[in-house]
Amino acid sequence: MLAGFKAFVGFLSNSIAIISDAINNLSDALSSIVTIIGTKLAGKAPDRNHPYGYGRMEYMTSLVISGIVLYAGITALVESIKKIIQPETPDYQAVTLVILIVGIIVKIILGIYVKKKGKSVNSDSLVASGSDALNDAILSVSVLASAIVYMIFHISLEAYVGVFVSIYIIRSGLLLIRESVDDMLGARVESGLAKKIKQEVLKDKEVRGAFDLILSDYGPDKYFGSIHIEVPDTLSVAEVDKISRGITKRVMKKYGVILHTIGVYSVNTKNEKIAKVQKNIEDIVFSHPEILQMHGFYLDEKEKIISFDIIIDFNAEHREEIYQKIYDEIHDKYKEFTINITLDVDTSD
After folding, report:
1. Do 260 and 225 touch, CB atoms closer than 8 A?
2. What pTM was estimated for this model as a whole?
């Protein structure tokens, strides 16, 4: 209705700014329809071919919405530039101002409602739609201002306001595309959630460390994950099993995250010789300032194997060279051992 009213008034008053605003509202309406379809599909129950459900469908619909918004912005920009090159005199009436004011009020109410509803149901798409509606109200204010300026001072700014509105629409479309692509590729997990999960895992007195947290999302707030924990080598399998089950239950209850795999690193507490080797290797590793973390140390005296993981800062240049240098330094010191160093990544920092 908003798009229809504004388009009618825009053509009647020969205003490209109002027509651009109408195009923006129309793209919002189409986006909302796509969002409804996407949300419905995302809520489908898991089946044999999709055992983790259809939650990621929301990311695909967001990408479709992005394309609609981007197309609308480019179309409005082209028309606005045409009006700058070949200006036409607008014909604003009192009814024009009334329609614009009503549109602004409706958009504000709609934006607040949709954003609030989006937060209550934890839907990023709805929150984004609500924020977009509030931003649209601001754009409509600029269109209203250009109409008032023309009616009072007879200065036509509406083509330039149309360009401004169009650029804003294009920017919104590009941002939506980036966010959608990030979600589909697998962006870094929100650090606050990752830290809270690790803190929860470390509450168990037998857990000495929590590493390698990996969270895979199958839709908004639908995470499946895995983690490694360090526990003393004195624990029995039954005791480790009890710890793992407790961690899984607590994390699920508090954060809704399913840790389907909990790996175990055994911490040496008996062999002083192994402890000394570990200390020497830690000194070598942490002599490089780019190293953020070392964990999962394991030494097999019988097979002559030393294994551990390191994390190198993403901002460090020549990460492969740093890795190779560390490997060479350790290999030179312990030539009789096979050295296995895993270059790990920190997905939670």
Report:
1. yes
2. 0.58
> Could you name the CATH architecture of 2-185?
Up-down Bundle (1.20)
Tokens, residue 249: 């239950």
**What digits encode the pLDDT tens for the residues 124-134?**
667 877 877 88
From the list 164, 175, 163, the residue with the least C-alpha distance to 66 is 175
The token pair that represents 86 in the structure block: 């070949």
User: Can you say whether the dihedral through the CA atoms of 325, 326, 330, 336 is positive or negative?
Assistant: negative
Q: Please state the φ and ψ torsions of residue 134, each to the nearest 5 degrees.
A: -65, -40
Which CATH number does the domain 191-344 belong to among 3.30.70.1350, 3.40.50.300, 3.60.15.10, 2.60.40.1120? 3.30.70.1350
What is the DSSP pairing of strand 305-312 with strand 338-344? Answer: parallel
Which carries the bigger pLDDT value, residue 226 or residue 269? 226
Instruction: Compute CA distances 242 → 133, 237, 328, whole Å.
Output: 50, 9, 40
Domain boundaries, the chain: 2-185, 191-344
pLDDT value of residue 189: 64
Rounded to an integer, what distance in angstroms lies between the CA atom of residue 103 and that of residue 105?
Answer: 6
Residue 152 neighbours by CB under 8 Å, 6+ apart: none
Residue 267 contacts residue 261 (beta carbons within 8 Å)? no
pLDDT, tens digit, 9 for 90 and up, residues 70-79: 888 898 888 8
Output phi, psi for 160, to 5 deg: -70, -35
